[in-house]
Amino acid sequence: MVFENKNVFVTGGAGFIGSTLVRELLKEKANVIVYDNFLIGDNSNLDEVKDRINIIKGDILDPNLKQTLIDNKIDFVFNLAAEPYIPHCYDRPTRFFEINANGALNVLLASKAANVKRIIQYSSSEVYGSAKQVPMDENHPTLPLSTYAVSKLAADRLCFTLHHEQQIPVIILRQFNVYGPRETQPYVIPELITQLNKTNVLHLGNTSARRDFTYVTDAAKGAIALMKLKEAEGQVFNMGTGVDHSIEQIAKLIGELMGHKEIKINVDKARLRPLDVQQLQCNNTKMSKLTGWKPTVDFKQGLKNTIDHFKESGSKWLWETKIKEEGKLWK
Description:
The chain is of the alpha/beta class. 39% of the residues lie in helices and 16% in strands. The protein has helices at 16-27, 65-71, 86-89, 93-113, 147-166, 188-198, 216-227, 247-257, 285-291, 299-312, 319-329; strands at 7-11, 31-36, 54-57, 76-79, 118-124, 170-175, 178-179, 201-204, 210-211, 214-215, 236-239, 245-246, 264-267.
């Protein structure tokens, strides 16, 4: 196994995708080091595996990151640390750019100094803006519509240039939307579940927007498959299912799974974004051909799993507390 007894560094490893990635890496017999500042992620996301991993509290902007990588003899880095929740970027664009772009630069340069074998930089389908043609492959124009998307695209370009300029072995993973247990932000699926847990009346923004959702375990397995391949270095890869759903369709499906015979949707103008991406639908041909990866979890089953986790967690998401705490830091 490629990762067996290798030291794998997961920035943002206490977050939503990161904590699932940690679990999948343990199945690969990796020595996992989680690096997180715990502003968004939380130790509770790692409770089941905390005795099998090393957890370091730290920030990707830390100038001592290089030494941390050296001291832990890191072989592979998955950089998931980011400011991820788009509605917040309108209030603090500087913070988003600082973490998502400058933070990525620090990770890249620190990894080079520490002789890391390979890095995956987590990017986002948001860099494309709304679809000009579907499904969207890696050559789709990049037309970002938020500071978040701009910051992720800046990191993409840093990765591309530094790979060619300084031979940094980095792979750019443009992840389309992900859903599942342990969500750390009020994204649309957990928000729908929260509202439908209390009532059949929903308050939403753009209900016609369409997104391509990958279940979180599938997303983690795909990233691991990509990291194993040296020939992927310096390239961009899309990861998504190839199927998109409107927010209205998702709301109705979740309503059905949660026992509502019908739902009512009220459009709340306060929930509309200044510039919204209308459609994202992934062409995963490149990823699939190189790695053999395909999504395995059916969308309806994945939603059921997510709802079950929500109920098992006391019908409350981690973000309901964390975002209030985080908001106090940036007012």
